Amino acid sequence: MSGILKRDNGALNANPNIFTYPRASNINITTHGSDWYWTVTAVMAMSTIAFIGVSFTVPRRNRIFHYIIAAITLVASIAYFTMASNLGYAAIPVEFQRSNPKVAGVYREIFYVRYIDWFVTTPLLLMALLLTCALPWPTILYTILIDEVMIITGLVGALVASSYKWGYFVFAVLALIFIAWNVAWVGRKHASAIGPNVSRTYLMCGIWTIFLWSIYPIAWGLSEGGNVIAPDSEAVFYGVLDILAKPIFGAMLLYGHRNIDPATLGLKIRDYDDAIHPLEKRSGIGSAAAHQSHHNTTATSGVNNGTHPAVAGDNTTAGVTGTHAEKSTV
To answer: What's the confidence (pLDDT) of residue 10?
Structure first.
């Protein structure tokens, strides 16, 4: 009976205390892969310039989504510049040695810089998406934490030579499922509660994001995980996904936000040249008297009926046309 219950711990045998630092890898990108990485670098860089340029067409207080999207493509352009230069990688022993000449060898080139890119950009992407549905900050932060878990476990799995890499793969997939739940269910309910413009934009960008993110594990399994496809094919696979998930996503999101006032989403950002409330002029900005007077005024004008101040059904405030408004009401 004791023999049946006893289980051997094979972790140290599968992952011995032996570290190999090869002078070179033999499963690498070719000039074709490098050329493709340069192409993606150009796409990301031009997208960054375009998003920054478009931001100047809206008031500064309405540029939050432009800045987030531009930051995503900026970081991605640096990461792809690094990979195009054949830098930012580690030579890792493959678990499965293949006979196919394109993936034959012992050490595969693993670009860890790709995961550094994702560690920075995927939280920004989620932030832009979840701010669109006005999800509560605790939920946003927790979703971003799970996203970081997904990226880190994917990186660790890619750098592990033994079959234990698939354990990290499972952790990453479970994290992705949690993220998909928050985006597809929780976020959708919040977006629907705000109004049709927000709901339409969030649904379009949310479905796009979750669909694309669900393909990344397949790319990982065929490249870093299973050593099935060549590094050049890996470059194309990840590159196409990143273009669709970053600049194309950004363009879709900003297009949807053209008719959404950020204040409707709880993002009331004040600029230095905005008009000052009359109470603040008399009592001083931020003074106790100003806050108390403003509180008393709000309590007697528009809240007696137990409702919030009216918000137009198309998610825009009076006199404001989304993020392209020249002046917002105060």
So the answer is: 82
The per-residue pLDDT for range 15-33, each reduced to its tens digit, is 887 776 687 899 999 999 9
3-state secondary structure the chain: CHHHHCCCCCHHHHCCCCCCCCCCCCECCCHHHHHHHHHHHHHHHHHHHHHHHHHCCCCHHHCHHHHHHHHHHHHHHHHHHHHHCCCCEEEEECCCCCCCCCCCCCEEEEECHHHHHHHHHHHHHHHHHHHHCCCCHHHHHHHHHHHHHHHHHHHHHHHCCCCCHHHHHHHHHHHHHHHHHHHHHHHHHHHHHHCHHHHHHHHHHHHHHHHHHCCHHHHHHHHHHCCCCCHHHHHHHHHHHHHHHHHHHHHHHHHHHHHCCHHHHCCCCCCCCCCCCHHHHHHCCCCHHHHHHHHHHHHHCCCCCCCCCCCCCCCCCCCCCHHHCCCCCC
Residues sharing a CB contact under 8 Å with residue 209, sequence separation 6 or more, in sequence order:
125, 129, 183, 245, 249
pTM of the model: 0.81
- Of 82, 91, 158, 85, whose CA–CA distance to 113 is shortest? 82
State yes or no: pLDDT of 240 exceeds 90: yes
Residue of 39, 26, 133 lying closest to 81 (CA atoms): 39
d(CA 182, CA 56): 32
pLDDT digits (tens, 9 = 90+) for 106-164: 999 999 999 999 999 999 999 999 999 999 999 999 999 999 999 999 999 999 999 99
**Under 8 Å between Cβ of 108 and 91:** yes
